[in-house]
Every structure is written in C-alpha cells, then in structure tokens.
Design brief:
The protein has four helices and no strands. By secondary structure, the protein is mainly α. It is 81% helix and 0% strand.
Length: 100
C-alpha cells in the first residue's frame, strides 16, 4: 500500500471532477462547485478508509493498544465511509447524467 494515500485520493478526486465537468458541459449544465468538492472529498475518504482498514488489519494488538478490542468496529466504520463515499459519487454523477 502506498505511503501517501491522500495523494492518490486527491488524484482520483481531480480525475472524477474532470469527468464531472465534462459530463456537465456535455449536458449543457453549469458544473456546481459544491458537487465538485463533495466528489473530491468522497474520493479522498474512499482511499483513506481503505488504507485505514489495511493498517488496522495488519497491526499487531500491541500497536493498537486500547483499541485492539475494537478492531472489528473500526473496520465496520471504515467500510461505512467507503459506502457513503461511493454513494455520494454516484448521486452526483446520476444528477448530472439525468439532467435534461
């Protein structure tokens, strides 16, 4: 796993925003800055959550300290972040693609 997941998330976000802007222009609508920011944050959250799951599952119990008892709950929370990030991205693209 890369050492800089935020960079990967930002690059994914920039790519997603470029696709979003392209679809908006193709549909004849004006791209919304709030949706572009939400899309970028969704991509960063998606990548960070995957990285977090990877760290938690690979960590020795001593490394997690008091949180070692909550490893499953932490992973479930990260999965929820992944789910919400994907859902937010799909809603944004669905809004743009279904317009007009």
């Amino acid at each position: 796993m890369p050492k800089r997941p935020v960079t990967i998330g930002l690059l994914m976000g920039i790519l997603a925003v470029l696709v979003f802007v392209g679809f908006s222009v193709m549909k004849g609508s004006r791209p919304d800055l709030a949706q572009a920011v939400t899309l970028t944050l969704a991509c960063v959250g998606f990548v960070q959550a995957i990285h977090f799951i990877w760290i938690v599952l690979r960590a020795a119990p001593e490394d997690l300290g008091i949180l070692s008892d909550y490893q499953v709950i932490i992973v479930i929370g990260a999965i929820a972040v992944i789910w919400i990030s994907i859902e937010a991205a799909f809603k944004i693209f669905n809004t743009v693609l279904s317009s007009r």
